[in-house]
Task: structure prediction
Amino acid sequence: MRAGAARRADRPDTGEESEGAGSELFRELARMVAALAEVRGLRSFALPYPGLAQRALDRTVMHCLDVGEAPPRSLPELWEWCRTKPAGDPLFAVPAPLVTPGATLVHPVGRMPTRSCLEVASHGPGGGVAAHAGALLSDLEARCGTGERYRQCRSFLARHPVVHRQNRFGPGWSKAVWSRVKDLYGPLPESLLVDGDFLRCSSCGLPALPRDRAVPVPAPSAIDTDIWCEGEECPRDDPPELIREPDQTWILRRSLRTFLALPYRTEEAALDALDRAGIDHEPVSGPLSAFRLRGTGAAIVDIQVYDRLQPSLLAAHLTDSASLADRTFVVVPDALAGRRGYRGAFTDALPALLRDRLTLTTPVDLVPDLGRGRGEEKDDA
Ligand SMILES: [Zn+2]
Result:
């Protein structure tokens, strides 16, 4: 798992130098898990396996022989390994600074790709799943023709990761917007159905699944431990919403659910904070969520918004990014920034040259941090 930037001499030690075949395998498996979840209704677990799954299985078998571990005998068994063997397992030995050692690629409760899986699958050449989301949005922007039309479509996608027939006759429904974005939706995959129904998390609005697929909504006492949603970090105060008529329901592509819809609440909170402080901003094309501030003098100052569980991979993504301003404020949800080790891991993974140009912040701290940034520029002058 080696980004181009990792070879730069100015990059600090994030442990990548000591990375081995296990880390590379972990990323290959992440890409396999992400891809299989899109194409299967678990049917691709039957022989013959899709090419990418067969290659990942072969590679895992070779790696197991190298390290003296009994290899998986089938794709279902490999999938189960991805659910039970985390990044820090001796089989992978992904360096702790790069990926949280306890992170698995398949969620133990939801049995679907984890957010960490999609982030690992987005790391390195090509940009993987997150780059796919970016490419879909670039296409949409080109098709929309005007910035205003694109902004309407983008905010529709972010607010409606799931569209039910009722939405289509509800208030605020725009036929024009739907006709531009409907290609980015598909029917609900079988793997997201529970006994013929569909569950949606009442907090993030993304798909949810119970541990026991025979019991769509567990008893209130078990909701905390027995329900998974794609947002993964949601409070479980309320049970998930049960949607019947799944054949009347459309779902946004997973890459956009994770990398556009999930961070959208943080984006709205950050822009609200700027508006309240009277700081003008305009969208920037390219990154999934970026805005340029107006009235910053000679310096170009941007904010970019992310909701990523793996801070070192976020830092690596920004290091490789061609779209950094003179100063970029990287806004993440308050709950993540407050997590033990998150800020430190982010900063440690940045090359020294970028540490003064990138500031990790939250919607609450954004405006005070911008003020401090201006103070520092004055001091430098
Ligand atoms: Zn959720």
Remarks:
- Residues 201, 203-204, 206, 229, 231, 234 surround zinc ion (CB under 6 Å).
- The chain is about 40% helix and 10% strand.
